[in-house]
Amino acid sequence: MATMDRRLLKAATSGDAASLKQLASHDPGVLLGTTPPGNTCLHISSIQGHEELCESILALDQSPALHSAVNKDGETPLLAAVARGRASLASALLRRCRERQLCEAILRQDRHGCNALHHAVRRGHTKLALELVEVEPVLSRAVNGRSESPLFIAAMRNFTEVADRLLEVPDSAHSGAFGFNVLHAAVRSGNLAIAKKVMETRPWLATEENENRHTPVHLAASDGEINALAVLLEHDPSLGYLTSTDGDTLLCVAASQGHGGVARGLLEHCPDAPYCDPSSSTCLHIAVLCGHTEFVRSILGLQQLGHLISMLNGSGETALHLAVRNCKPDMVAALQLHEDIDVTVLNSAGDPASRVLPDAANHTEALISTTAHQTATAAVNSTGAAITTPSNGATMMNSSSGAPTTPPPSVSLAIHQRLLGAVVCGNSAEMKHMALQTPGVLLGTTPQGNTCLHIACIHGHERFCRDVLALTTNQQSLAPAAPLLGAVNADGETPLLAAVASGHVSLASFILGRCRDERLSEAIQTQDKRGFNALHHAIRSGHRKLALQLIDAEPGLSKAVNKYDESPMFIAVMRNYAEVSEKLLEIPDSAHGGAYGYNALHAAVRSGNPVVAKRIMETRPGLAREEDEHKTTPMHMSVHWDKIDVLRVLLEHDWSLGYLRVEDTLVLPESFSSIAQMLPTPMQMAQRHAFTKPFRVVRECNPKIVKALLQHPDTDVTVLNDSGNPATWVLSTDHAKTLNWNEVFMLMLKADPEAANDTYNLHKQIKDRVTSESRKDIKTLTQTYTSNTSLVAILIATFTFAAAFTLPGGYSNDAASEGLSIMARKIAFQAFLISDSLAMFSSLAVAFISIIARWEDFEFLLHYRSFTKKLMWVGYIATTTAFATGLYTVLAPRLLWLAITICLMSVLLPVLTKLLGDWPVLKLRIHLGKTFKSELLDMV
């Protein structure tokens, strides 16, 4: 086309219709000229919003060329008008295009893929959007370069009327950016009307994933859109059982964001919704890791999820382990409030929750790792999940990848939704009515494989369970109740297991009785997918009476171990349930293993129960020699944990256990004394080994154990090790500057006085080595000492200087003695002045010596520290004296008792300070008596 005349461009820009008509009268073809970007005069007028000028242009040129002209952005005049928000002008251009049947001009998409309908909806011109759909419904099929359909944009902008109209177009597009669809948009905007309409017309969209594998249902759970989730579940309850291709369930998504309301709403529609992710972490574990305390409190109050309290994740940790490990006191408190919590559960490292508290060194690292885990969990859950169980049982497609997601094993008969509602509410009348109308309805199952009896057991509706089993009993069958009592859900649970795990003791007892009446031994002994049977759950939840009933009904329950190798006996002993433990020990082949290679005797040691330990030693003495994964026997554990009562029980039953050996076992003094008293000749046995107990404890500098060893009459301190050295010579230089080292040294010197010369030679050698090593650190240590000392010195100098000019009693105003102190003639006041001056002088001296000190000379540094320490003591004593005498001067005339009390306290303060500072040495002097050698403490 020809280049646009500059006069025409000016007229189109300004809206000058007269000038445009004049130009067109001279040259009709001038109207078809274009600017370098390809815009005609009609484009320019549309962009500027000159509606009258556009009418004039179209009146002058009746050809379709101007209507269909496309600029370099791919825009027709209609598109240009809509994109700039010229709704009235766009409506006029639309009518012209329709009159001339210019469908192509109406359907044109710009270089971004947006058509007029996209722009109209995006800019909020709903009337224009409805007009466009009415004129050309095909506009609804187009998607732009970001895969956005007009329907998606309308739902995102909450334009319900436009969305409803577009949904009426059968083949209208519904996709959006990032793999979203219109149902994602309805959930995100919280528009329940659009969500309901989409579910009625295109229900399959609820199972489509976005690029992050996030379905609309998971998005509702993640965003906390409770009402939107309710709309989706009311239309199709099976959506509550969706699991993403990454394995994330709706409860896990809600837990990661802390939406307790979502969890409650989900369980109202799907009472047995799945609660685990692929790593076997439950929604409770995830909530604890993400720090959502309110969510934890919320779900622990629900019947369906209370049993998660002591459940282990894939890493072998309970929620309590995670809360303690990550130092979350509020979370720990919330978990401990639950009545069924078992604080003795061991993790994969063999530790209860109380032993996983991080120390100060790794606390920061633990918190950082937790934050990273929270971020990763939130990222995964915020991306959503693919549905795997649609209501029609078909395989779904991932909308972003096109890969099919595999549904879980289908069930033969789905539970009726009315029956499900009756079960949750415990409505027996409704259940009976349905059972009479539809035979076999009671055998239906949810997608999780739960029958109506399972769900009633989870909720604790005992009356309902009795009525269900009564109905099935009345039916003509050889074992009428067996199908319900023996039914196993996706978690491997029978109704009995579900009742016990949920903590409904009375109901579980009733179900147990029915199983026994029906001779359903297999149903009673069933283990869930984690290997727990009813007895495991009963003991773990603290239901001792129920546990005893289970053992009486089916002793075979005692033989089972779960996937963590825990037997019912092990759990009972860990929880200190003596009666249950006794009952289990009476069964000859009952299992006794535990987590981390422990056995029941390890558990008895941990719980400190000598009664159970004695019973185990009487029935299964071999357990005392079994090692855990750390190669530790119960005997060694009792020593390590200082369980003296249990230790005595073990040794009384079999004294040879005292000679069991294990590397790196820490022996406490009390435990060692017990062993030494009960074994016939411990030292001779020890001396048969190349590295005897004396050598080990001397090297570790443990004076209590050294003393215990030396008290034994058979101890020979002259025994040489493989290097030809007696025990004294293996003292480690690493501990040489400690009181323990010196105490051990003095004890060994007392035990072998004949070796005094060698001992002193050793002391000199160690002292020289320590002195040499100290030279390397003396500068740093002295600088630290100096900074602290000079700070205190400056503070003392400051307030003693101030005290000199704010004298006690004030100044005289008499003409003869104006400016003099009122108390000047009193001895106490004179003592105040002397002590205050002395305190200021000594502290100033320390402060300035710190400045002029030479840091390179080792001997000078030692002299400096000694000298300044003495000066600081002088300043300290003088300061307290000044304080006491100053107050005495003021108080003595009227409150003599108070003045004397303050003086006594001030005098005693330096004495108490010295006593407390040197107390460890004084205690050692008292403890050792004549054995004490003050010259040996020079290194301390």
User: Quick one: CATH superfamily of one domain?
Assistant: Ankyrin repeat-containing domain
CATH domain class of one domain = Mainly Alpha
| Overall geometry | flat
- Compute the number of helices: 49
**Beta-strand percentage?**
under 5%
- Low-pLDDT stretches are 360-412, 663-668, 679-693
Lateral arrangement of strands in the main beta sheet? 1-2
CATH-level-2 architecture of one domain: Alpha Horseshoe
Helix amount: 55-70%
Mean pLDDT: 82
Specify Rg, calculated over alpha carbons: 44 Å
- Terminal Cα separation, in Å? 100 Å
Structural class computed from helices and strand pairing: mainly alpha
Description of the molecule:
It contains 49 helices and 2 strands. Strand 1 (396-397) and strand 2 (404-405) form a beta hairpin. The chain has 940 residues and is mainly alpha-helical. Among the domains are: 210-398, Ankyrin repeat-containing domain (Serine Threonine Protein Phosphatase 5, Tetratricopeptide repeat, Alpha Horseshoe); 772-939, no CATH class. The N and C termini lie far apart (100 Å). It has a two-stranded antiparallel ribbon. Helices cover 56% and strands 0% of the residues. Its main location: membrane. ANK repeats lie at residues 212-244, 315-348. Keywords: ANK repeat, Membrane, Repeat, Transmembrane, Transmembrane helix. It is a multi-pass membrane protein. This is PGG domain-containing protein.
